[in-house]
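Project channel, design review

CF: Before we commit to the Gaoshiqia sediminis constructs, I'd like one complete example in the thread so the newer folks can see what an input/output pair looks like. Taking Beta-glucuronidase.
RD: sounds good, go ahead.
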Amino acid sequence: MKKYFKTVITEGVLIGLVFILFIGRVNAQTAMINVQARNTTSLNGKWTVILDPTGAGDYKQVWQEKKPQKKTDFVEYSFEGGPELDVPGDFNSQLCELTYLEGTVWYKKQFDYTAKPDRRLFLHFGAVNYAADVYLNGEKIGSHEGGFTPFQFEITGKVKNGENALIVKADNRRLKNGLPGYGYDWFNYGGITRDVNLIETNETFIEDYFIQLKKGSLNTVSGWVKLNGANLQQSVEIGIPELNLSRKATTNEEGMAYVEFKSAFKLWSPENPKLYKLVIESKTDTVSDEIGFRSIEVKGDKVVLNGSPIFLKAVNIHEENPYKRARAFTDGDNRLLLEAAKELGCNFVRLVHYPHNEKMVKQAEKMGLMVWSELPVYQHIQFADSLVPQKLETMLNEMVRRDKNRCGVIVWSLSNETYPGTPNRNEALIELTQKCRALDSTRLIVHVMNTHSYDNNTFNVWDPLYKYSDLIAVNEYIGWYIPWQGKPSETRWNVSFPDKPVFISEFGGEAKSGSAQGPTDEAASWSEEYQETIYKNQVEMFGNIPNLCGVCPWLLFDYRSLGRMNLVYQNGYNRKGLISENGEKKKAWFIMNEYFKRK
Ligand code: GCU
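CF: and here is what came back for Beta-glucuronidase:
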């Protein structure tokens, strides 16, 4: 009998532990969209922090903020007396002792709140890299994994009248089964890198909507509105005042209402980035947005914008302000990067290798720059790990949900340079492609590959995933990682799926601005002349690539990547920029600028 009780107790404890672990891992909600149009209270500004490189904070349960109760008590942590960090902003660039941290920083923010009847309160994060555990007044409210997409928690009923203590554990350690995984060629900026807001809503509010032209149409919008709350069946109205257009609909028991309407829209394009004010009203909420209408599709071997073929003049951009040596997040940071792209002659920006901040996408749209948004499914991903498929789907939902109303976004890129031999890679990415099409049938969906071979001056482009990709997106570094095997003008391209448009999503080579030490015709000189020659040869090769629909040099600015350890030329920088981190245009910049002018 005694043994029986022992077993029962053991099992009970185990079940209890699993339950606590599950609660502890309460995942964040997929965030409501268009935060800027909501009733928000910003929590940006100075937050006090505890630096926790050894990860002791979990064991000490610092979120409880224990205080000595007796004369003999003492507590070996406190948020008082420590440094402060700016939120938003990566922590690495704010404190010298954090420069290379891949670990934990505990952030704390006090805020006052007065609860109002029939109002709900949400805590919204633009992004925390890489993982976040969030505590309110000593209680864990949930966690989120993924460094580049928004998430939220409802804190109605958990927030106190008066002063509240919000504590966030931000941990940018790499995970083998993370997205990205262990290895990536950019700086791992950690922390609360984007805005934090309290969002107050009515009991039932407009949580999500999708208002875009139907695929292939130039005048018909097919969209929907989704409510969240107890009173889900309401009438909703969608209006575009400038067009004197208004449509009513009634949401169903799930809070969904579908609309379809026509109009002679002025179509959004790089030349005329026309946006309309859109107002969505329900009985209990109103949200306004700025929406553009355009059609993007592939027709045969062409990319077609608003019914006309377009050549994609692109450039790769990492989310880093080169002058600040920090994660970019301000309007000024975004404009700096996008204006440099415009000056180069671009009509398209590939925002690598993760979703950039929401304001960057909106700014690009306003400037007439089409946008390529990409998931951090980068190179070595553990596709066979049991947790990865869910991580892929969650991050896909978060990326598409946030920006699906941004007509400037024309491409969802679901992977970069993954390898065909990786277990479950094809299956996982085919499934992810299908999920993306189900979420959004209006945009191009691509996978970027570098699984080519180059023999006898013939460049062979193949990968099973190209069957599922709207573009043949190729990263190739002929002239840098792989020497030319003959005249560039005679390089033959042999592309599997020959009927699809070919987009060169990366090409180029390194140069240290002003460097001409040693023979300039040798790669190891890191000379601008060597890089310039790569670009001249690439441009020569472009002329004989079948179905070429666009090119995208790697990349706009030199940027930080700690694996680049040549201490004469790199010093922790990837030097493939057309512009140095000090704003100096390299000789190759002018080759690219001339090419884009001629297209
Ligand atoms: C790869 C990769 C980039 C990387 C680049 C390089 O193609 O996509 O992220 O920085 O090559 O080696 O510089």
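RD: helpful, thanks. Residues 16-24 have pLDDT under 50 and may be disordered.
CF: Residues 205-294 form a domain with the Immunoglobulin-like fold (CATH 2.60.40.10).
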